[in-house]
Amino acid sequence: MRLSEIQTSEGRTRYVVLDDNGELVLPVVRYLKHLDYRGYARNTLRSYGTCLQLFFAYVAQKGIDFHHITVDDMAGFVHWLKMPSGMLNVLPHQPTEQARSNRTINHILTVVSSFYDYLWRMDTLSIDLHGKTHTTVPAHARTYKRFLHQIAGEHPIEKHLLKQPEPKSRPHTLTTQQMEQLIAACQSERDQLLLLLLFESGMRIGECLALYLEDIDIVRYQLHVRDRGELANGAEIKTPSAERTLDVSAELIYRIMDYVASAHTETVTTNHLFIKHHGAHSGEPLTYADVHALFQRLQKKTDIAASAHLFRHTLLTRLAKAGWAPEHLRERAGHASFQHTYQLYVHPSADDLREAWERTQKHVCHSSTLLEENS
Predict the structure, then answer these.
(1) 3-state secondary structure of 174
(2) Catalytic member of 79, 309, 340, 354
(3) Is position 345 annotated as part of the catalytic site?
(4) CATH classification of 2-139+155-160, choosing from 3.30.70.870, 3.30.950.10, 3.40.50.10330, 1.10.150.130?
(5) Active-site option among 100, 204, 272, 332
């Protein structure tokens, strides 16, 4: 089983899953096409295709019909995802780390469940996998309480029987020193500008690569994130709802103007802000592959493992720590809800917790006071 990239008649990049004989896995193809019609982003389609490719690889190894999958089969799939070998008949001789994190496994289970729900609703099969792998628990049994849950009442909470426990983790961010090292290691004005823009704006890399010259407001010091669909360089914003206007510093705008003046010569025909500078494709829009290669070069120079998304994480985490209101953070991030933004970026560090304790410990009874009161 493998995930294969294809080009549609409209020139768009999409994905299909092929079996070991190179034949299309038609149920997956139809499902991904269904999601495409619903407006799912290209990267999401690729992620879903990868998850289903893994599922059908497991089904093929076990020799079962996916139309008649059981809860035991799904439990076996979870175990298979954890195995480093990826083979049912190859077991490790000693304890080893599982191949995928529990968070990744839960994502794959969600995709497979959605795939079966689609087939069930299309009357392609009679099995309701969602009903077999989910149960309900009383609302009071859950530690997390939704906003205004008292008013909403005690509605049962749905629970996935195969969901793996996920440890709490803080988002990894870059220090100021690390960012300075990475920017200083850039060999071109364009690369330095890209890193500065990624951090100061908090934009996704696809949004940066989709920036047109007319998206730069040099009077108001703003950047406009606009939905133009999938562009020639493969760039696109995540969802149409992510359109927004971002305030940035005058210094960043001046840097952009300097870069445009030097890079966008008369021979450049594209409206994309970031373009290639060398080679046969000089003057064409910068691509995801170009950015990935940039961060690989920077890691070799600085020994700092960074990515474009890590710059976004760093900014939004800092803004949350600086006291930005939830609705402001949501707008900056381009999320549909501030709950999602807070779950990703609002995580107090050990130093934050220590400072909070030192500010409030005088209001807490000391052990010596308690002993005197009880004596």
Answers:
(1) coil
(2) 309
(3) yes
(4) 1.10.150.130
(5) 204
